[in-house]
Write a structure and sequence with these properties.
Radius of gyration: 27 Å
Number of helices: 3
Structural class: mainly beta
Strand order of the largest sheet: 3-2-1-4-5
Number of strands: 18
Distance between the termini: 76 Å
Order of helices and strands: EEEEEEEEEEEEEEEHEHHEE
Strand content: 35-45%
Helix content: 10-25%
Length: about 280
């Protein structure tokens, strides 16, 4: 059986001027064939020999074989360079002459030329190989991590309901729950996060914040920075709505209150009815 988007060992069954036809070793009659173009046929390849090739479709939408190594295979996730952006989407360098299309509808943010993006390889409704940045179905689960481990990953999608989806080590499923995702971190960012829990099914919850007692000092410094940017008077207090605090500070209301309490305790601010002022 010939498998689009995968490497496989195929048997040489017919030589022609423009190349060598290959078939699956278990296809005794060679009824399902694919062409390996002449410029890629090794001089020593004879009828009956097997050769390792990758199958894709050429510009005329015909199945074709290549001995070249691709940077990604069907169902895999890999980081590829954007070689160009057109009206139909972006094109990625994946090791072949024919570049790989990343349609606009499969982008979780608009990519730029020369940028490296994390994508998966799939077959679209027309039977063509395409790339997608919607990675969730292509990432796997693992129990290799435990609570409080630090992990690196790529933030590839944000959902208002669920939170921020992270590809841990660019291959495992990770989620920063919505209530934990208070920072303004853009999609496509490489992040370091802390494991907060590992589910029975191997799915991992993350946080990009330290434990509360470790985070207070960092948050207090951020609150000071923001107050200074408002010329020393922050026009709201810790009684403001969670939405205002999240928008202006990138923190939850509880995190903001702890940071303000720390600054107040250290005599660095004063709180009025409607504002927080530097002392």
């Amino acid at each position: 059986m010939l498998e689009l988007g995968k490497r496989q060992n195929l048997k040489a069954v017919k030589k022609v001027d423009f190349g060598m036809y290959l078939a699956s070793p278990d296809d005794a009659k060679g009824e399902e064939r694919v062409l390996l173009p002449a410029k890629q046929v090794p001089a020593a390849l004879a009828i009956g020999d097997e050769i390792d090739v990758f199958l894709y479709k050429d510009s005329s939408d015909r199945l074709i074989a290549t001995v070249r190594e691709t940077l990604i295979s069907l169902g895999e996730v890999a980081r590829l360079r954007v070689s160009g952006v057109t009206k139909i989407g972006a094109f990625l360098d994946w090791g072949l002459e024919k570049e790989l299309l990343l349609p606009f509808r499969e982008q979780t943010y608009r990519v730029r030329e020369e940028e490296e993006v994390l994508v998966a390889l799939y077959v679209d409704k027309t039977g063509r190989l395409c790339a997608t940045m919607k990675l969730y179905p292509y990432l796997t689960t693992t129990k290799a991590y435990v609570k409080d481990d630090k992990v690196d990953g790529t933030l590839y999608e944000i959902s208002e309901n669920f939170g921020a989806f992270v590809a841990i080590d660019d291959k495992y499923q990770g989620l920063i729950p919505a209530k934990e995702f208070t920072k303004n971190v853009p999609v496509g960012s490489r992040i370091t996060a802390r494991v907060t829990s590992v589910h029975e099914d191997g799915k991992i919850n993350l946080s990009i914040r330290e434990k509360a007692y470790l985070q207070i000092e960092t948050d207090a410094k951020e609150v000071l920075r923001v107050i200074e940017s408002f010329d020393g008077v922050l026009p709201f207090t810790d009684k403001a709505s969670p939405e205002v605090i999240r928008r202006e500070m990138g923190m939850s209301k509880n995190e903001f209150k702890r940071a303000v309490g720390n600054l107040l305790k250290n005599g660095m601010i004063e709180i009025t009815e409607r504002a927080i002022r530097l002392k």
